[in-house]
Amino acid sequence: MSNITDYKEAVDKGVFRDTLASVDKRGKRNWIYAQKPKGKFYKIRSFLSVFYFLLFFGLPFIYVNGRPLLQVDIPNARFILFGKLFLPQDFFIIGVGMITFILFIVLFTAAFGRLFCGWACPQTNFMEMMFRKIEYLIEGDAAHQKMLSKAAWTGNKIFKKTTKHIAFFLLSFLIANTFLAYIISIKELEKTITEPVSKHIAGFTSIIIFSGIFYGVYAFFREQVCTAVCPYGRLQSVLLDKNSMIIAYDYKRGEPRGVAKKTAENIFGDCINCFQCVKVCPTGIDIRNGVQMECIGCTACIDACDSIMTKIDKPKGLIRYASENSIATGKPLRYSTRMKFYTLLCVVAISLLTILIVTRKDIDATVFRTPGMLYQERGKDSISNLYNIKFANKTLKELPLTIRLKDGIGSIQMIGKPVIHVEKEGQGSGSFFVILPKNMIHERKTTISLALYEGDKLLSEVKTSFLGPVE
Ligand code: SF4
Ligand code: SF4
Questions:
Q1: Residue 293: how many other CB atoms lie within 10 Å
Q2: In this predicted model, what pLDDT tens digit does every residue of 121-145 receive, in sequence order?
Q3: Whose CA is nearest to atom 1 of ligand 1?
Q4: Best substitution site from 35, 272, 306 to test ligand 1's pocket, by max atoms within 8 Å of Cβ?
Q5: Predicted confidence (pLDDT) per residue in 222-262, tens digit
Q6: Is 417 exposed, middle or buried (0-12, 13-18, 19+ CB in 10 A)?
Q7: With a 6 A CB cut-off, is 272 part of the ligand 1 pocket?
Q8: Where are the alpha helices (DSSP H) in 113-131?
Q9: Can you give the pTM of this predicted structure?
Q10: CA–centroid distance, residue 171 to ligand 2 (Å)
């Protein structure tokens, strides 16, 4: 295997940290023929990936209160989460969401390393659990794939390669459609597919572009996404520390590597230098060189090494989930206080975000006094202020809205129609006077509460200030 030869050479020269397994000495792509892993972790990951794919392909079909469970409508700046609509007016929640997301990534990675990459990342799941498995099915394991690539273009090769690429493109097409459904909703996607192309040029073009991108990624670009493009992968070097959980080679137990001759004294550690851990690695690295940015935490090397350890009658876990410190001290990895604390912070941040999302109101109202106006005298005993109001209706029905003073003293005089109609998922605005008796005004600025009603149903309350003549 060329990647192994390169790595042996790189390790011998001690330059492995400056060498990418997927790039040869001339700077050309070194295709990784990863051997099919077998073992406990691969079985669990395969099992979980079924749920993952069901979730990915099924989620756009789930509707709550007439809306998709999840929709990320980036072109229209609309987000739907658990059937609730979020508009740019919800920037506070979106901001908290982004901070939570960043905090979660930093804390989770500091504690659990690249657990996400190996178990939950769509790229890893689609690549390793879907496309790679189809490749094994059509072209065989790594050695057969390599032989087939080097072979002349016979009928058998043409058949296998064509079948694989057709299967890859069809799957990419399916993923592209699902991906688009998360943006425009499954109902819009259905229209895009069933109605004339001329009516859905943007949707149709998106499907073609997304299909091309996914096909390019899974058929050709592959592990390069993780090793050269993904920003999360690039952040590992600053997010991990010596206590982070990583997939690590126990060098204390494994070194020096080698197999003792039957007659000679065994001066070697448990690593027999069989390179099985490298052969299964989808990014082509040698985990024995220590933590590396290219490691996506897929656990394939754990399975490979465990099976070797079983064969040579040694304890499993030469490669295992551990921290650099736990390997150095020989102590087992524990769910440390630090991990517990980081987990707690993640839970608090997510709980806070959940509370904000669940308690978010369906009507947003922003009231502000008309700029440049102070107050108006209304006869001898009253004063008025002029206000503008803006509404965002996040429900799926048109709302006829009226404004009332919450504590009932004084009155509202609308400019124009007494009822403001705000269309579903739309915005509306209006202007009105608040008229208060002079004897209520004891300060220059008095806080007043306005109530928004749909008929007799109170929808929301909003506070504003009322300007009076009192100094
Ligand atoms: S699979 Fe295990 S024994 Fe074989 S080279 Fe890797 S670490 Fe050593
Ligand atoms: S080093 Fe092991 S865990 Fe990391 S990517 Fe390679 S096989 Fe997966």
A1: 19
A2: 999 999 999 999 999 999 999 999 9
A3: 305
A4: 272
A5: 999 998 899 888 887 788 888 889 999 999 999 889 887 77
A6: exposed
A7: yes
A8: 115-119, 122-126
A9: 0.82
A10: 25
Look at ligand 1, atom 4, and give the residue with the nearest C-alpha.
274
Which ligand does the CA of 286 lie closest to? 2
- Report the pocket of ligand 2 as residue ranges, CB < 6 Å: 247, 280-283, 285, 287, 295-301
- The ligand placed nearest to the CA atom of residue 254 is 1
Q: Does pLDDT of 300 surpass 60?
A: yes
- Which pLDDT band, with edges at 50, 70 and 90, does 471 fall under? low
pLDDT computed for residue 15 by the predictor = 58
Backbone angles phi, psi at 373, to 5 degrees: -110, 140
Mean pLDDT of 89-113: 84
- Ligand 1 atom nearest 312 alpha carbon: 3
Residue nearest to atom 2 of ligand 2 (CA): 301
What is the Å distance from ligand 2's center to 262 Cα?
Answer: 32
Ligand nearest to the CA of 249: 1
Four-point Cα dihedral 72, 74, 78, 79, nearest 10 = 20
What confidence score (pLDDT) does residue 13 get?
57
Three-class DSSP category at 455: coil
Which atom of ligand 2 is closest in space to residue 277's alpha carbon? 7
Query: What is the predicted pLDDT for the residue at 150?
Result: 95
DSSP for 46-112, written as a single string: HHHHHHHHHHHHHGGG-EETTEESEEEETTTTEEEETTEEE-GGGHHHHHHHHHHHHHHHHHHHHHH
DSSP state of 155: H
Residue nearest atom 3 in ligand 1 by C-alpha distance = 271
Q: Is residue 443 predicted with pLDDT exceeding 60?
A: yes
Q: How wide is the angle at C-alpha 13 spanned by C-alphas 225 and 249, nearest 5°? A: 60
User: Mean pLDDT across the chain, nearest whole number?
Assistant: 89
Q: Residue 304 CA: which ligand 2 atom is closest?
A: 7
Ligand 1 pocket, residue 274 CB under 6 Å: yes
Percent of the chain with pLDDT over 70: 96
Reading the block at residue 210, the tokens are: 């997304």
